[in-house]
Amino acid sequence: MAAFSATHCRSYSYSHSSSINGGQNQRFSFSSFSRLSVPAKAIRNSHQTVVLMQDGVVATKVTPVEKETPKEKLKDELLSVTSTKEWDEKAGFDSNENESTVSITVVGASGDLAKKKIFPALFALYYEDCLPKHFTIYGYARSKMTDAELRNMVSKTLTCRIDKRENCSEKMDQFLKRCFYHSGQYDSEENFAQLDKKLKRHEGGRVSNHLFYLSIPPNIFVEAVKCASSSASSGNGWTRVIVEKPFGRDSESSAVLTKSLKQYLTEDQIFRIDHYLGKELVENLSVLRFANLIFEPLWTRQYIRNVQIIFSEDFGTEGRGGYFDNYGIIRDIMQNHLLQILALFAMETPVSLDAEDIRNEKVKVLRSMRPLRLEDVVIGQYKSHCKGGVTYPSYTDDKTVPKDSLTPTFAAAALFIDNARWDGVPFLMKAGKALHNKGAEIRVQFRHVPGNLYNRNFGTDLDRATNELVIRVQPDEAIFLKINNKVPGLGMRLDRSNLNLHYAARYSKEIPDAYERLLLDAIEGERRLFIRSDELDAAWALFTPVLKELEEKKIIPESYPYGSRGPVSAHYLAARYNVRWGDLDIEQ
Questions:
Q1: Active-site positions?
Q2: Which residues pair with 90 in a beta bridge?
Q3: Which residue, of 175, 468, 478, 551, has the fewest CB within 10 Å?
Q4: What band does 509 get if pLDDT is binned at 50, 70 and 90?
Q5: Is the pTM of the predicted complex or chain greater than 0.85?
């Protein structure tokens, strides 16, 4: 996690990890600082006590050496109070040499992700004074474009959504002045070398740190990394690369990608981004559990009946069918977003909040999970549906999708963790497109109260009396706990109510976008919310066998109408483990 909040970003430091060229760990400060520099001759001729004054002036008390001549003594006295800047100039020191700068290159700058997410996130960080004093942003893509055209393109997606301060347009202009563009091929070392020359001009002799964000298709990751490492890496600071999913299609392709990237980068330089890990409510998972005594004792199979992790979108592929058809909902959502949430939810208490300690615990969870079986998976594909006089298309109506496609747009799965804490507790995942609503949430359903004195008040449906903790990740972020209580009156009538933490009502400040947090962490070198290679291996090991079986056996997805609650088989899957999907409750 970043070591500071958005409201305390004006002065901070971050660790410098090894660069592509293998530089040693250092620590740089983004806050302004004064540097003591002493004239060489003054040092040679005297013993001095150096004091830094409040106004930035350096005062020295000079103790003459035994053989100092009167002329040399007078010269030393004249030099006894001199400004730092004057000494730097006289000694021939570069005033920039101890300052650092960050050069952020968005590779694939003309794409939707860059325009809609990356540039707006960088502006939000700048707006909140979270970026370093010296930084430059370069867009890099194959499209021919000038700096002015890039700025015009970026400006259309920037908003002053954080608040309505009067200086927003001014800040926007200042930010755009730091944005530049370089056109080049992703596999051209020469083009990246030209980019590097431009970066050096902006860096002005400072310690340079390079961050590359690969917002490009995965089939050109390796070539882009190769060119960046050989032609545009930092010579005296760190170099880091943010890689977007998908990280392969299965265990084999993921291992090949990791091996290829590690030809040019160390593991510490690779930041595999999963933007769901940057969402506020996912970030809050460990706080909710480890900072509240009432939850940690209950976070076990003795009290929890099941855990549900649910993702739904109320729209289809909408022109992205060509990309989506190559991956499907399991690879696109379940294997990364939902499985990462599961690992954070189920992990043991880490030794510390250090990135490696947390990621170690997540890996232990993934390695403890039972291999996923085909009978514990349901897949579906949305079909055309008419509602309210509007006809909604089927998945295969998308012109970029083959008419005989068997790619699932919906999937549900039951997973199990074979360890002492979670033995026998079903973790149910569900993800789909073109469903009845849009949202992402974690639902923790607790066991029935043994020997409940009020069973007769609940009737035959005891599940209605089950306590449930709901963490709504998006939209309308909230945490609420369902409890049973007495309805006021003379009779004994029970009601199910929510203890509700509604973020919009509780906190006036708008929740930052996930990309803001993750970009800031990458600049700081904080890796806790990024995926390590062994995590990736363990995640793919869970899903690869069932994915191959689905494809080899050509399992036909169950059809479900556009805008419905998904395939009927998903309900049977949950019922097999005595579970009712929480998001289908009529109260919701």
A1: 337
A2: none
A3: 551
A4: confident
A5: no
